[in-house]
Design goal:
With 598 residues, the protein is α+β, with helices and mostly antiparallel strands. It has 15 helices and 25 strands. The strands form eight sheets. It has a five-stranded mixed β-sheet. A five-stranded antiparallel β-sheet has the order 20-19-18-24-25.
Amino acid sequence: MKIEASSGRTSAFESPCLTVVEGGPSGLSLRAPLAASLRAGEALPPAPAGLEAGDVVAIDLAEPGRYERFARGGTARADVLLAALAVGANPFFPARVRREVAAIDLDRSLADGALADLTALPFVTIDAATSRDLDQALHIEEGGGPGVAFVVRYALADAAHFVPKDSALFEEALVRGASVYLPGFSVPMLPRELSEGVVSLNPDGPRRALVFEVRVDRDGKILSTEVRRAKVRSRAKLAFPDVQALYDTGGGALARVEFSASLEALRGVGEVLMREAASRDVARYRRGETELQVTGPDGATLTLVDSPRARVEMYNEQLSLLVNREGARMLLESPAPHVQPIYRVHPSPPEDRLASLRATLASVERVHGLGPAFHFDPAERPLAAFLAGLPTEGPEGRVADAVHRQAIVVNARSSFSAGVGEHHGVGAEAYARFSAPMREVVGIFVHHEMVELLGGAGGADDALRERVVAAANHSKDTQRKANDLVGKLYFDALFGRDLALPLAERPRRRGTIMGFTSSKVHVSLDEPPLDVKLYVRDVGRARGGAWLVVADDGATLRDRADGALVARLGDEATVFTEGRDARQDRWILQLEPRPSDT
């Protein structure tokens, strides 16, 4: 079975290139934002007829005049595409990569006699409704032997089989590092014919997978782990809301199918693993779950919506964490010199940061006059238990949200490394990213290393491993930059609409003060649900030029002259748009005075 090309017209382009239509004195022209889109000395053709300035258009360099419009100028969709191009995310792949993709035969790959045949087990995938790159499928059963409470089978797409280390596909994955995700648009690390087709664990036939089989006891402890390459067949592509509805109602169509017992077992093992993580003082922070979407005709608008996580998403997350921990452990414990692990390392917060956090929490308790729930003493209870016991509603709920944020910001960033180190965030001595083999080059690499471990043979290549580590870390920065660019688009649209109104008529938005630095006040708005920064000097200027300072170990903002309280960590705040600083390209947001100040 040869894989099919994607349905878009650009799939037939011999030499596709994404361009922007620009206007000028002599008419319209094309510009290629990605320097790598053109070979040395290669020029763009004239702009095809029927386009307008600002349009984002794919053209075929091999056949001038052949094009497909991806977005109309002036729309949010066009702006998002330009953000992708600004961070170097190219939706098209070189000809040598496309030739390798065209040569892949799935039937031949599935005929591999070394694959275990697990097609009789009713695996399913559970993802967001719009997901098409399905990395993971699961099958869970209760029991399974003395002391065994659950047998977890987690199938990961076998991208390593289709992307050998010496292939053009792997080299391109190294260049990209990871898929880039933006509202309504993604730039895949692997061509969509693979990431959404032949490699993806779609429910349209058998697929190759790397299957972790983990036995877990009733306390969430791991009894044994086995890994093997296998042939699996997903029975269904499920969405998180549908599975959550099964848990909430106990009925519906999913209660009467061959994988119903597996879904119920998922809930059981998910709860067990969450309790076990809490026993290791793994904190579960309150994070705002939001999503930017491109909406309206032609993708005209960016819209921010709440996207709270269902409980089933947490269960699925626990399985990913489980196999990533176990995979890392197996690589770490291997004495084989040819096995070259890559770990995701997240160091514990330095003691000075933890001491600062304890001081801030003590001051928050004092300045708000709070009860025992807000008293943190690590000798009495660990941080995870303290955070889990904080209130969720009312004024104290706001304070609790701010406390969670303070606990988050003391953490260091994680990174990929060839050397082993703890992952503080998941409470693991070693952790590796096995669970995203189609979306991260490091996933392909560690799958290769696991296969070499299982087979007992392979070769070491230190230089290649270092390239993978560098690419993986760079890809995280690329996604952050893309998020920042898209976030700026949303801010500019939102606050630009505010600025068109007289000052008294501009929206007053409620939120929670999440933290202070010497120059900024951080506020999390209720609606729209986003984080904004106010500058301390702007707040002081609105108070007659007062010099404001952070006091009480970071729990308050006060007037330096007389110590008057301006704001407390966890206070409800009202924010409005005052203006725009064009020179520094930032919005000037302002705090309404506290009731006691008026």
